[in-house]
Amino acid sequence: MPVLILLLIFLLFLYMIAPRFRFRKNLKPFIRYDYAHRGYWNIHKAIPENSLSSFRLAVSHGFGIELDLHLTKDNKIVVFHDDFLTRMCGENLSVENTTYEELSRHTLAGTSEKIPLFSEVLALVNGQTPLLIELKLPTSDTTLCSLVCRELQNYNGAYLIQSFNSLGLLWFRKHAPHVIRGQLSSNLTKTEPDIPFIACFFVKYLLSNLITRPDFISYKLHDEKNISLFLHKYLFGTPIAVWTLRTEEDFTYAKSKYSIMIFEKS
């Protein structure tokens, strides 16, 4: 009887973490690209992350582009990584609580580059290379999802959606099931003390897949020792993206094991 109970628990665990299989073939065109993390940036050459110049350079080198989206106070979609402007602009302002007009007064990392609108990036890339789009959802508000989906309706290029916040992926599962979606994760129970432990635990071990059914997993390389990630790779055969690769050793190792490389190179 104990063996049977353990077997049932394991089967339930597998059911919870399982991916979506239906659109797996649609991921094949994305796997042959390496993705420049926040664009192909180099601050020593005055090319900051998530800037138009970094995206232009990624296109010219034939790399895919990973980028981050936030929603401003006035519902503009901007390309920016952090929740606050402190690190990149030297101002303690929250992106979500600031209008785009206010954000546009600031430059990135002391350069002349401004925080770009998502529409500007789409116009620049124009389908020349695939986009790996991370949705930044600091709360349970998923307004960003609907606006991003609307923005992408007339975009002819290839793109993937990913997020740490499973509510964003759930939104796409319900309202735009044709969009390929990925669950971002890492050792969140260790690195995110301000987020409820149970939420971090579910995303860390991919248990939230029960409600989101992602097509791929995007995991931090140095946190790869995770039973759920192992099962996705060797049991489900799920395509796995790994980040952020900053050394030749990491890149070579990741290339031998995983499907999508997200890298930085200065």
Question: Can you give a write-up of this model?
Answer:
- It is a single chain.
- This protein has 266 residues and is an alpha/beta fold.
- It has helices spanning 2-17, 28-31, 52-61, 86-89, 100-103, 118-125, 143-152, 166-175, 188-191, 197-204, 209-212, 227-236, 248-257, and strands at residues 34-37, 64-71, 77-79, 131-135, 159-163, 181-185, 216-220, 240-245, 260-263.
- It has an 8-stranded parallel beta barrel, surrounded by 5 helices.
- Strand 8, helix 13 and strand 9 form a beta-alpha-beta unit.
- Helix 7 packs across helix 8 (166-175).
- The N and C termini lie far apart (57 Å).
- The mean pLDDT is 97.
Structural class call reads: alpha/beta
* Helix residue percentage: 25-40%
Query: Which overall shape is indicated by the principal axes computed on the Cα atoms?
Result: globular
Unreliably modeled segments: none
Neighbour order of strands in the largest sheet:
1-2-4-5-6-7-8-9
- How far apart the termini lie comes to 57 Å
**Helix count?**
13
What does the main sheet amount to? 8 strands, parallel, barrel
Number of strands: 9
Instruction: Please compute the radius of gyration using only Cα atoms.
Output: 19 Å
Strand content: 15-25%
What would the average pLDDT be, to the nearest integer?
97
Give the helix/strand layout.
Layout: H1 2-17, H2 28-31, E1 34-37, H3 52-61, E2 64-71, E3 77-79, H4 86-89, H5 100-103, H6 118-125, E4 131-135, H7 143-152, E5 159-163, H8 166-175, E6 181-185, H9 188-191, H10 197-204, H11 209-212, E7 216-220, H12 227-236, E8 240-245, H13 248-257, E9 260-263
Parallel strand pairs: 1-2, 1-9, 2-4, 4-5, 5-6, 6-7, 7-8, 8-9
Antiparallel strand pairs: 2-3
Helix pairs in contact: 3-6, 7-8
